[in-house]
Write a structure and sequence with these properties.
15 helices, binds zinc ion, 45% helix, four-stranded antiparallel β-sheet, elongated, 2 domains, alpha+beta
Length: 307
């Protein structure tokens, strides 16, 4: 079995260490304080990767206080790592150098404050050093990002997740209710205002919005361009596709209402698929001219209420 260098966090998680570039850090403690709330909020992401976990925040003699080390200390030893004053929580980040037996702290709103002469100074200092020093050696020897890099990486990950959540919210009412919509296709196609309900699919050259009625018609006819052979022997419904009009290469997403298999595939014939969709869409639009469509959500609610 291949072994690798690793660290084990307090929560038991093992992080792989990387032997690459170590970023130079300037003014990291100030940067850390300015973004303390952000790092605190995204600690789970930081606890997932040693390059982020080992980003140095503060150097105390031989001991490196790393980003993950500090956040972990706050999380697991709050009685040592935090101070309460007038209802505000202050998180210790370092031993004070300007006043004896005191600490530098930060609040979640980025306020930096020194607390001098604490009676349990020795216990707190020991706890901080013990906790943070366990990562000092690896922070020195292995790859890590700068705090700024960590911030940018986490921010872009969070943005990406938010985008994915938005897309999922748009697609799930349609994709997750294909069985229900198909089961009630006659009813939907009879009510033109239902048939005209928009689905989130967008296809190059096809007029938008694309209507649920268009898909139901093509699926019911097992149209060869809007269905895909399923492993169960039936034809699965293509509910989304995108491709290149030049090469014809098409990525499809499909769902089988018989065996409930859902999948993606690479196929060809993009123009035939787009053309088929456009023609059926036009026919339906003509039949329903002047009728105002309801939303897909309203159809689903109606169906769920009455069935
Ligand atoms: Zn199937």
């Amino acid at each position: 079995m291949k072994t690798f260098d690793s660290i084990t966090l307090v929560n038991g998680k093992v992080l792989k260490l990387f032997g690459g570039q170590k970023h130079r850090n300037n003014n990291t403690i100030r940067y850390f304080c300015e973004h303390a709330n952000f790092f605190y909020e995204h600690q789970d992401t930081i606890f997932d990767n040693s390059r982020m976990f080992l980003a140095p925040v503060y150097l105390n003699g031989d001991c490196i206080y790393t980003l993950g080390g500090l956040l972990e200390w706050w999380k697991h030893m709050p009685q040592m790592a935090t101070l309460k004053n007038e209802g505000v929580t202050y998180y210790i980040i370092a031993v004070s150098s300007s006043c004896s037996k005191g600490f530098i702290t930060v609040t979640m709103s980025g306020e930096v404050k020194e607390f001098p002469f604490l009676s349990d100074y020795a216990d707190r200092t020991r706890s901080l050093d013990e906790h943070c020093c366990r990562y000092s050696k690896v922070a020195r020897d292995f790859e890590h990002l700068s705090l700024k890099n960590v911030y940018d990486t986490v921010a872009s990950l969070a943005k990406q997740r938010e985008e994915e959540r938005k897309i999922e919210k748009i697609w799930s009412p349609y994709r997750d209710n294909i069985e229900l919509l198909y089961k009630h296709r006659e009813e939907i196609l009879t009510h033109k205002d239902w048939a005209m309900a928009a689905i989130p699919l967008k296809v190059y050259m096809v007029q938008l919005p694309i209507h649920i009625g268009t898909m139901l018609k093509l699926w019911a006819n097992e149209d060869k361009w809007l269905t895909h052979p399923c492993v169960c022997g039936h034809r699965a419904f293509i509910y989304s596709f995108a491709g290149s009009p030049l090469s014809g290469t098409t990525s499809i997403s499909y769902k089988c209402v018989h065996c409930h298999k859902q999948g993606n595939a690479q196929v060809d014939g993009f123009l035939c698929r787009a053309h088929t969709l456009a023609v059926t869409q036009q026919e339906l639009s003509k039949e329903a001219e002047g009728i105002e469509a309801i939303t897909l959500k309203e159809i689903i609610d109606n169906l769920k209420r009455t069935n």
